[in-house]
Amino acid sequence: GRLEAVTQQMGYHPQYLDSFLKTQHYLMHMDGPLPFDCRHYIAIMAAARHQCRYLVNLHVLQFLRAGGDPQWLRGLEFIPPKLRNLNEINKILAHRPWLITKEHIEKLLKISEWSWSLAELVHAVVLLAHCHALASFVFGCGCEQDEGLGGRGSLKPLSLGNQCFCEATAGNSCSQELLRINRKRSLDSCMELDSLRERMQRIHVETEGRDEMRLLQQDREEGEGQGEEVGVQGGTEHCSDPSAGLSPFADTDGEVTGATNLACYMQDPDFGYQDFARRDEDQTQVFRVQDYSWEDHGFSLVNRLYSDIGHLLDEKFRMVDGLQSSAMAKRQGCEPSVFKRGIWNYIHCMFGIRYDDYDYAEVNQLLERMLKVYIKTVTCYPEKTNSEMFDRFWKQFKHSEKVHVNLLILEARMQAELLYALQAITQYMI
After folding, report:
1. Cα(245)–Cα(223) distance, integer angstroms
2. Mind listing the pLDDT tens digit for each residue in 181-221?
3. pLDDT tens digits, 345-394
4. Backbone angles phi, psi at 52, to 5 degrees
5. CA-CA distances (angstroms) from residue 158 to 163, 165, 386?
6. Of 12, 46, 155, 176, which has the maximum CB count within 10 A?
7. Could you tell me which of 46, 340, 389 has the C-alpha nearest to residue 214?
8. Measured between alpha carbons, how far is 165 from 146 in angstroms, rounded to an integer?
């Protein structure tokens, strides 16, 4: 029930880790519009969209410890309609956030027995975006685990005994006050492995296998390399599908490994990411940051409806932008700020978010094709990421630099989802 694998990886950047832990703790355990059990169930719903067992299992345990009804863990059919109604925007935000409209917001807020308040909905939206983006980090850094034991691939979580997840950061400048609060209040505190197994068996959470993907032969990748360029056509950016160079992982018997069965926590499991450039032009327009930005619009709205969360999110966005990346950028032959902005804007480009003052030709110049394939996979369908991809794509990067890029993916993706959701809420309020 701990986030130790995540905090170990984020620990390469202790200032960011401190900011992340404060936000995580505030979202899940401090005063807010939503009951504690509902917060963890929303996290389960969000993580299930990407088949992220690591986060699902974590929040299943925390849901029970918060006094949640075990019957809810049988699936969406067993939860209150109010919570089940959140499924639609969970699905859209996770895969195609540009489809969120004020009608989705109105449907949830309409006067009825199961209506949401604006404050509750903002809390839920932030939770969904947080967990979707965290799932990308979990897969991107190899934190996804098998049956709660050990890490997959080349990234093994530390064996921290009975420490809570915040205690793991004590040597990484995590504030003593935050540690004190978490030791006292956090539902993320330690749980013995035997108890974990017992609870997981009791609620029948499935933990067999997961969907794994790996690269085809290099010649096929090179053959499709031309499709990976980012261009500006008709005022929109085109980012093609990197999964064309991927194939299901087959075991020694030639059978494809099955995905974790988390179907009970979601509806329409086949709904997934679709290239924004292939959208219906009549239904969706490019999202222009000049018209609606986090700094000028999203921050004030979210902070007004869910007190102080805007400050925590803003600190986290600024923290990842301020991380040192001089060596990483030097390898790519550019300035650190230019390199980071290229990654950030490339990620936002995949979600249809455009910066009018940015030359998108820079993306192709700054980011080599293999790096772009990795970034898009982790961002748009993280469940297809595996350790082979992690090791093969970034041979020239240090481990801390790989984590840094995964942090950029986490924050850029989260901000993209929030921009679409908060814009829809703004339009509803107007």
Report:
1. 9
2. 433 433 333 333 344 444 444 443 333 333 333 333 443 34
3. 999 999 999 999 999 999 988 888 888 999 999 999 999 987 777 777 66
4. -90, 90
5. 11, 11, 19
6. 46
7. 389
8. 19
Residue 178, helix vs strand vs coil: helix
380 is catalytic: no
- What are 198's strand-pairing partners? none
User: How do 213-215 and 287-288 pair as beta strands?
Assistant: unpaired
Q: Give residue 19's identity as a one-letter amino acid code.
A: S
Amino acid letter, residue 88: E
Contact 299, 250 (CB under 8 A): no
Between CA 94 and CA 413 the distance in angstroms is 10
Residue 320 φ/ψ, nearest 5 degrees = -70, -30
Between CA 384 and CA 389 the distance in angstroms is 10
User: Pick the catalytic residue: 38, 52, 143, 174?
Assistant: 52
* Alpha helix ranges (H) inside 188-335: 193-202, 218-223, 299-305, 309-322, 326-331
* 36 in Cβ contact with 30 (< 8 Å): no
How far apart, in whole angstroms, are the C-alpha atoms of residue 29 and residue 62?
A: 10
- Whole-angstrom Cα distance, residue 202 to residue 200? 5
C-alpha closest to that of 100 among 430, 427, 414:
427
Find, among 368, 378, 371, 370, the residue nearest to 412 by Cα. Answer: 378
Give the span between the Cα atoms of 298 and 197, in whole angstroms.
41
d(CA 115, CA 361) in angstroms, rounded, equals: 46
Residue 261 has pLDDT above 70, yes or no: no
Full DSSP string of 67-125: T--GGGGG-GGGS-HHHHTTHHHHHHHHH-GGG--HHHHHHHHSSSTTPPPHHHHHHHH
Instruction: Report CA 111 to chain centroid distance, whole Å.
Output: 31
